[in-house]
Amino acid sequence: MRDAFIRTLTGLAERDPRIVLITGDLGFGVLTDFAQRFPEQFINAGVAEQNMTMLACGMAREGARAYTYSIANFTTLRCLEQLRNDVCYHDADVTAVSVGGGFSYGQLGMSHFATEDLAILRALPNMAVVAPSDPWSASVLTGQLHARGGPAYLRLDKGSAGLPEAPGEIALGRIRTVREGGEVTIFATGAILGEALKAADILATEGVGVAVADVHTLKPFDAEGVAALARKARAVITLEEHTIVGGLGAAVAEACMEAGVHPKAFRRMGLKDCFPTVVGDQNFLRAFYGLDALAVARTVREALGRPVVPPASVSVAAS
Length: 319
Hints:
Elements: H1 2-15, E1 19-23, H2 28-37, E2 42-44, H3 49-61, E3 65-71, H4 72-75, H5 80-88, E4 94-99, H6 117-122, E5 128-130, H7 135-148, E6 152-156, E7 176-179, E8 184-188, H8 193-204, E9 210-214, E10 217-219, H9 223-230, E11 235-243, H10 248-259, E12 265-271, H11 282-288, H12 293-304
Parallel strand pairs: 1-2, 1-3, 3-4, 4-6, 5-6, 8-9, 8-11, 11-12
Antiparallel strand pairs: 5-10, 7-9
């Protein structure tokens, strides 16, 4: 996704000299082409993300369209005060771009896990929050965020949901149904959407129809679209590589309750209220914390009152 983002930003920079890309001493192989082609529009702020964010805000206040770039926690939580007080309060044209959403940097431990960012960033006034599921959707949404302007958070994953390209179907602030179904609807955000699609395939062999929705925009949130899709389902499942506290599951629940939609079963799948302490690659951690396709299928069966297949054992030593 990061490659798709930088290709798109490079193309935008060819037409818009206001674009400036500021890195926190990260991504040189990925950012080299941009830096060489637009040296006056590229800054390495060093390992100083708070300063990077203030610099971006100051430049935006003078007419720039600023993009900050680093690992997810470093563009967000390390400089949360600057995002809140400088960028969002002044409604500045700054997009905080994170690489490594969720468990992408799984071998580096919880300091590099981005598992609270969506909840925290969606609470900031004026802030758009976007989590694409594929490289091509990251590209399309980068362009749409640029056209929108204002404060934004773009959360990029190392993985991919594996969907076929359909750029015309992506619209900032609108959910996208990527699989039609019957009695169950799964709402997912980010590349973990791919696990929801695999689970839907598993359940289809058991006669269970599952609709899957790509909630690539957490804010502005498509409450009307979510409620309309949830209204058709007996069971609603939310799936996120993130804590269940304040993230996608909370947003979907809020939308349903406010619209008077009350599915017979509602399950949030994500990290519980804890710090993940196990390390390993992204797929291993999804399985370990009960967020892979098999876990999603089990959750759907339980929500529908069907027989639950015992979970496969996962060895910590395998990490």
